[in-house]
């Protein structure tokens, strides 16, 4: 488990979480969690283990899903695991078929599956797949999934929780073209359809996160010394929105960062350009 240092304790304030309220709100509900085999998705599953819910855990690693199911089955929650790469339409169809055959439908979707790439654009000149694969999992997969599941969420007056990044709210960071553009695409899609969903009784919640200590960031060595949230902390935030129905979460410093990002965009470009130039010298 990732333990916060003094700076992280300041940046990522504790989340007050009430288990009784969660249990009351979720009693008998069915919850789909994508990207559930590690990191945030795994921690959300563990946090819901003592609640009378049916969790549908989806990820690519069958072995990891099985291990999570084994741990949770000893508690109150019922667990179904489905091995699927959501970028593959046939595998996504297996997930959708199972959900549509459920007698009580679906109540909550935690859209968490994702892929990150941090790479200079000049190292991607012959890697067009950097962009197609991030768009495939970060944008096209959740859109296709939700186009099928929205009627079920409407019927049950459910909730869609999107695990996003604070990067979609600020000036794009250098080396993040593939990842940030794909996350921004789904962010805009969800913001566009949200009024229609709300009008039909579907709550949408966007969780705008900074860096999180998950396996996804391991390949980027520069992230190892940067402040990062604990996946367990993020799970608390996500599960809390299941009973508060809060429309969004961002760190306390998120709004000042947004304003600074807009007001200092020219300065940001000059500074980052100098940093990149220095790194090449």
TrEMBL record:
Key words of the record: Oxidoreductase
UniProt xrefs under Gene3D superfamilies: NAD(P)-binding Rossmann-like Domain (3.40.50.720)
Q: What are the TM regions of this chain, as residue ranges?
A: none
Asked whether the keyword DNA repair is assigned, the reply is no
Q: Which Pfam families match?
A: adh_short (PF00106)
Family in the record:
Belongs to the short-chain dehydrogenases/reductases (SDR) family.
Annotated protein name in UniProt: SDR family NAD(P)-dependent oxidoreductase
């Amino acid at each position: 488990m990732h333990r916060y240092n003094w700076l992280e304790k300041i940046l990522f304030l504790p989340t007050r979480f009430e288990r009784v309220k969660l249990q009351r709100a979720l009693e008998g509900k069915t919850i789909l969690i994508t990207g559930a085999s590690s990191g945030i998705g795994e921690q959300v599953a563990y946090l819901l283990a003592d609640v009378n819910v049916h969790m549908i855990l989806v990820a690519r690693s069958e072995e990891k899903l099985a291990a999570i199911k084994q741990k949770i089955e000893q508690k109150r929650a019922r667990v179904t695991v489905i091995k699927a790469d959501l970028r593959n339409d046939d595998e996504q169809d297996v997930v959708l078929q199972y959900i549509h055959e459920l007698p009580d439908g679906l109540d909550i979707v935690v859209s968490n599956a994702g892929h990150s790439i941090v790479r200079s654009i000049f190292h991607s000149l012959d890697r067009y797949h950097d962009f197609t694969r991030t768009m495939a999992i970060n944008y096209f997969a959740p859109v296709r999934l939700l186009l099928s599941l929205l009627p079920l969420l409407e019927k049950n007056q459910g909730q869609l929780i999107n695990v996003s990044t604070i990067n979609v709210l600020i000036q794009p960071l250098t080396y993040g073209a593939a990842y940030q553009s794909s996350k921004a695409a789904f962010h805009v899609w969800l913001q566009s359809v949200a009024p229609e969903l709300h009008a039909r009784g579907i709550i949408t919640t966007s969780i705008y996160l900074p860096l999180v200590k998950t396996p996804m960031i391991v390949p980027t060595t520069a992230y190892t010394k940067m402040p990062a949230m604990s996946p367990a902390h993020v799970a608390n935030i996500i599960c809390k929105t299941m009973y508060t129905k809060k429309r969004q979460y961002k760190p306390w410093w998120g709004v000042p960062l947004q304003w600074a990002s807009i007001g200092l965009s020219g300065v940001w470009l000059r500074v980052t350009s100098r940093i990149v130039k220095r790194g090449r010298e």
